[in-house]
Design a protein that fits this description.
Length: about 160
């Protein structure tokens, strides 16, 4: 049996292209929104894993949700900003991803040693809830601006 992290990465990679097509058909905003909500719910369910099989299944669902967030998020950024502003915003997004990749293992190791493996999932759930609330409050405003014109870096 492979490590549970592998299943998340594999399912994320497998679903990137199909979810990109789904986002083109049904709307990037919808796919992004449901990606955030499903990632948060699946992460919360991971805390209550009764066995390794359930945890692996949750990690697969996390990978699918993560590909929804990543694919639709990049597409939203690309369509929301003018070509002049796009480089700054994409750079900020990529920087945030790589900061997370650098800090994540260190923080995860600390949390696991101090509080057990379930603490990694517990920490993510409040962040997902906050992001969901912010998204619900602001997604219509951003959607309206997307239809009118490209955003500038300062507007965000």
């Amino acid at each position: 049996m492979l490590h549970p992290i592998f299943y998340r990465l594999l399912s994320s990679a497998v679903f990137l292209l199909p979810i990109g097509k789904i986002a083109d058909i049904y709307g990037r905003t919808q796919v992004y929104k449901w990606g955030i909500v499903s990632f948060t719910l699946v992460t919360f369910a991971s805390v209550f894993s009764p066995n390794i099989e359930f945890l692996i299944f949750m990690r697969i669902l996390q990978g699918i949700s993560g590909s929804m967030i990543g694919t639709a998020g990049m597409a939203l950024i690309t369509s929301a900003f003018s070509p002049r502003e796009r480089g700054k915003v994409l750079g900020l997004n990529v920087s945030a991803v790589y900061i997370g990749l650098a800090v994540g293992p260190l923080l995860g190791g600390f949390l696991t040693q101090a509080f057990g493996w379930k603490s990694i999932f517990i920490v993510v759930v409040p962040l997902g809830i906050i992001l969901t609330v912010l998204m619900i409050k602001n997604i219509k405003k951003i959607g309206l601006k997307l239809n009118q014109k490209n955003l500038t870096f300062q507007e965000v």
